[in-house]
């Protein structure tokens, strides 16, 4: 059977053998409990004081509860010293980091539990029912959480579909897989139960859906083209903070394509805005509805920049430049994350293997805080990055090393290195956190 608990650096592996939990030679008390209408649970307990070995640090009884579905099909991380136990007991809606394997033999959603020190341990994994590509998607937003935290959306670029999972307490529940209504989906976004998927294959488009308790239903008149038919190389789709606009970045055309969102969540025709910097890639909206966009400059050494935009009430789909192409002197700035308060933005520089930080003023104007705020390892090619919902942690998926770098976000926006998480496929795609 699979290991289901791993206790921090001082490791105890728990297995469920059908009747009891096993930790090495230890036999732990197991108490099955039936839950009406749900998968049964099993409680594994370590009672009393254990002398010597890996259990010597435990001085009081500890118990954890898991569903049998999780015990049999997944991995749950728990730690007394580092706080994984409290994260697991809090359920999947808090303290978790999500990514996808992007495996061409079968895509999976991977869920990591965050410890008190910011480190990650794989908590569970589940097949999406779709296929990955086994290659980088060149996008941001391949994995996205709904704004209410109840659902996770994952693109399956290998078979042109999108999957939806529900976070039900400690249970990860697969809900649906539907066609993306285009070719090669690479990014997905959600706002108030409406979901849009960005397809970069063929002519390219955005396709809209209604999220009905995890079942995605196509929106009437919910498909729109990009700035032109084909050749745009889009990178990301996202709703604005207020939900009035939908935005797509296009790497090949150096454009932002935006759409006014109607009351029924269908879209008006696209509006095209020229990017101040070359190769607009990833972006994020902050709490004040300011748009922060990275510009990779075609990967030219030391030529990357970041621009910011605001949206007016008069024309809420039109991005208006606030700060134009503020340089970072780094290479291939591709992914963007902002803190919950909206004061700081972090940029993953794939070509420089580091992270830059910017200060974001209330009006959206940008100033470079640190060109190198954190490093991810030589040749690591940092890709997706995300700030946790509490604003205290930054996570960066490294594209060539199969790792996730962790940083503590200090009050002044500076970063402090935290434990590195290994074991991730270099082909993984997307990063989200709650």
Walk me through this protein's architecture:
A hairpin with a 5-residue loop joins strand 32 and strand 33. The protein folds into two domains: 3-76, no CATH class; 184-433, YVTN repeat-like/Quinoprotein amine dehydrogenase (Methylamine Dehydrogenase, Chain H), CATH 2.130.10. A six-stranded antiparallel β-sheet has the order 1-2-3-4-5-6. The chain has 434 residues and is mainly beta. The protein has helices at residues 68-73, 84-89, and strands at 3-6, 13-16, 21-23, 26-33, 41-46, 62-67, 96-100, 108-114, 120-127, 143-145, 151-156, 161-168, 171-179, 185-191, 194-199, 205-212, 215-225, 234-239, 245-250, 255-260, 271-274, 280-285, 291-295, 305-311, 319-327, 333-338, 344-349, 354-360, 366-375, 382-387, 393-398, 403-409, 415-421, 429-433. The chain is built from two helices and 34 strands.
Can you tell me the CATH topology of the largest domain? Methylamine Dehydrogenase, Chain H
Helix coverage percent: under 10%
Percent strand equals over 45%
The number of domains: 2
Average pLDDT confidence is: 84
> Helical segment tally?
2
Q: Summarize the biggest pleated sheet.
A: 6 strands, antiparallel
Between the first and last Cα atoms, what is the distance in angstroms? 29 Å
Question: What would you call the shape?
Answer: globular
Count of extended strands:
34
CATH architecture of the largest domain: 7 Propeller
At the first level of CATH, the class of the largest domain is: Mainly Beta
| Structural class designation | mainly beta
Low-confidence segments, given as residue ranges, are 1-89
Widest sheet: strand order? Answer: 1-2-3-4-5-6
């Amino acid at each position: 059977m699979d290991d289901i608990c791993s206790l921090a650096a001082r490791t105890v592996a728990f297995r469920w053998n059908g009747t009891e939990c096993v930790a090495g030679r230890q036999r732990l008390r197991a108490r099955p409990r039936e839950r009406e209408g749900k998968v049964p649970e099993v409680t594994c307990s370590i009672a009393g004081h254990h002398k010597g070995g890996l259990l010597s640090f435990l001085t009081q009884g500890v118990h954890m509860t898991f569903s049998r579905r999780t015990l049999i099909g997944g991995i749950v991380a728990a730690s007394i010293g580092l706080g994984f136990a409290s994260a697991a007991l809090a359920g999947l809606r808090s303290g978790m980091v999500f990514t996808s394997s992007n495996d061409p033999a079968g895509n999976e959603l991977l869920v990591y539990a965050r410890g008190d020190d910011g480190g990650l341990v794989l908590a569970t994994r589940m097949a999406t029912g779709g296929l990955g590509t086994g290659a980088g998607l060149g996008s941001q937003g391949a994995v996205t959480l709904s704004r209410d935290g109840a659902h996770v959306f994952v693109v399956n670029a290998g078979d042109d579909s999108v999957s939806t999972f529900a976070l039900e307490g400690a249970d990860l529940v697969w809900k649906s897989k539907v066609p993306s209504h285009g070719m090669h989906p690479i990014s997905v976004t959600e706002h108030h139960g409406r979901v849009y998927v960005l397809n970069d294959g063929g002519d390219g488009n955005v396709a809209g859906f209604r999220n009905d308790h995890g079942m995605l239903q196509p929106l009437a008149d919910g498909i729109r083209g990009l700035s032109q038919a084909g050749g745009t190389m889009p990178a990301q789709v996202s709703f604005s903070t207020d939900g009035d606009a939908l935005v797509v970045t296009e790497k090949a055309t150096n454009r932002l394509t935006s759409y006014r969102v109607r009351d029924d969540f269908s879209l008006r025709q696209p509006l095209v805005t020229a990017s101040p910097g070359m190769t607009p890639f990833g972006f994020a909206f902050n709490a004040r509805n300011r748009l922060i966009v990275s510009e990779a400059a075609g990967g030219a050494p030391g030529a990357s920049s970041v621009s910011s935009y605001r949206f007016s009430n008069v024309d809420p789909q039109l991005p208006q430049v606030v700060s134009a192409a503020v340089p970072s002197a780094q290479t291939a700035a591709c992914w963007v994350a902002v803190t919950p308060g909206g004061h700081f933005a972090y940029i993953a520089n794939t070509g420089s293997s580091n992270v830059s930080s910017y200060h974001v003023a209330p009006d959206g104007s940008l100033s470079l805080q640190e060109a190198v705020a954190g490093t991810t390892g030589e040749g690591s090619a940092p890709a997706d990055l995300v700030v946790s919902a509490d604003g205290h942690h930054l996570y960066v998926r490294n594209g060539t090393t199969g790792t996730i770098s962790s940083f503590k976000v200090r009050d002044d926006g500076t970063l402090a290195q935290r434990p590195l998480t290994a074991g991730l496929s270099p082909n993984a795609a997307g990063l989200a956190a709650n």
